[in-house]
Amino acid sequence: MDFHSPAGTNPIDQEQVVGQATVRIDGPLKTTGQARYAYERHDVVANQAYGYILGAAIPTGRITGIDLTDAREAPGVVAIVTHENVGKLGIGVFINTPPLGGPRIDHYHQAVAIVVAESFEQARAAAALIKIDYERDAGQFDLAAGKDTARLSDQQPASQVGDFEGAFASADVTLDQTYTTPDQSHAMMEPHATIATWEGDRVTLWTSQQVIAWATRDLATILGIPEENIRASSPYIGGGFGVKVTVMSDAVMAALAAREAGRPVRVALQRPLIANNTTHRGATIQRVRLGATQDGKLTAIGHEGWAGNLTWDGFCESVTIPTPSLYAGANRMTAMRLARLDLPEASSMRAPGETTGLMGLEIAMDELAEKLGMDPVELRIANDMDAEPGEDGLPFSTRHFVECLRTGAERFGWSQRNATPGTVREDNWLIGMGMASAIRGAAGRDSAARVRLERNGTLTVETDMTDIGTGSYTIIAQTAAEMMGLPLGRVDVRLGDSDFPATYGSIGQRGATSSTAAVFAACTKLRERIAQRLGLDSADATFSNGEILSGDSRVPLTEAVSDGAIEAEDKLVFEQDFYTSMSMQSFGAHFVEVAVDIDTGETRVRRMVAACAAGRILNPITARSQVIGAMTMGVGAALTEELAVDKRHGFFVNHDLASYEVPVHADIPHQEVIFVDDVDPAVSPTKAKGIGELGLTGVAPAIANAIYNATGIRVRDYPITLDKLIDRLPRNPG
Ligand code: MOS
Hints:
The chain is of the alpha+beta class. Helices cover 25% and strands 25% of the residues.
């Protein structure tokens, strides 16, 4: 099905099932432990051996010698794979670093060996007996130091609209500040894990992947085998946050080890290896310049960013992504530069671009509001727009940004805020309120699904879309049930398998839009086939309550399948001329109240309100869960999450969950999510935009702004840990 014009009225608009608050259909499997994650799939293949990955001990340089003598003789050892016995490996599309190091070492904890043994403990013990000699090169580990040699990014080209320099120079009120965001780790609960087995030249992986089609594509290139010789299965995934969008060392090394060992191998990437062995979110430096008239109209917006990566063509944490789409203003410039660093590879994490970009831009807006003596909400409303500025500026498919700002402010009680910082106190706590805008790209991507009306009248849905804890099973079942006029209980959803039609997977908050569009397309075709088999006209057929109604006829769906199941498969193709003629974004506004301990500088987030406009809300329960999870991640970005870089030895020091601190829901007593009415017929047939990542963007700066309101201390370097506040707190108890 081609999607080449805004969707008209269609069966989804009935909202009999779609749009209804539905608890996750996979919930009972999760809570009873029956949903098996990759490492728990004991039953899929017999005789599994255990793999243990050894990480490089230097950040950059060469292996000059490997001595496996003792390791090979250790109890239980089945096989050892290093660069010396594996042959040449390719590089996938999305990740630039070789998954197996040697002789060249690209980054600290890059895999250099996998030991296969009868037990995990034996594999671990043998790995400790491997002796490797290294020759270390000097490396560059500091973004601030690498900034001067940074190059303009190809991924996020610099842009100029109007005359930024002139407008900034002549503006009534200006702001010019620099903000920094640190390296961060995804810290999902389920570690990377894979069980791999070979049959001849075909490999099967039970693994944990957000995007099945990227995993098989990249693994094919790395192993040098045809993609159709790879099967990947990821029905349940315990979080990914961007680090599982393609194969990491667990999958590659498990496949290599299983081939070498001649038997299935099971690998879970050890937690202490994850931060340095896999990818992370790269640190950024941002300079924001804003110019405005006295009454708060932005006349100049400048946003420059610097990020780092291992290779010049690597992923760029492009902080300037949201800047053209958020505020009006005739004159603007953005520029994103990439520096080469010898740290582990930086890549996608939790709404890359928007999350970090707003961490700078949205503190800057708060600072500008204060300079103008203007309410921060009003400043944002005053700079709303219908279309992105400039000759190439696109209109928005829908934009309910101002409604988010107003509704959120109202529900939060923003009018109660005291604009003078450091003036509200309760006992030992300084109390503050802050807010920030949220925006995240939300366009769909081509995706396919297969649906089958079985003889017993149930509907089977098969697609390689994944559920990373987000609710995909449920919204896909709702979409199919709505399309076919069936109760939810008669829909059986099967996900996360490369044997199923390919989707864009769970990435960039595009999963819900893309996968439900695919199900819409497949169900549309199935409706036609069912009508055809019954000799009815599909054009005027209605599917409802397990029946098909057409003209005077009313036939149970089961009648259509009395001779056998009917199947349909289709791909929803987003026609690019139409699709790229609009800017498709989800919008939101975050409001936060914090309390800062006047003696210790500890910040507590007391309550949070998010107002979101994200197209049709397919399921208010799963959408809300996405947003409150994202808000919690935003608390981490604001207050605790930072990979500490050892700038001498070139690695992330706090590479475990004890020292890399992530908040949990229990840290935040009150979280409220409001959905602003927004149905977007241009984004997809289901008219739904992504919401998961939207919920994160803008949270951290809202907290930073609340801390400023509480204390009068403006911290521009995340995370806002107590050491950045403690010396500047008013030590005047009582
Ligand atoms: Mo997300 S960082 O696009 O998995």
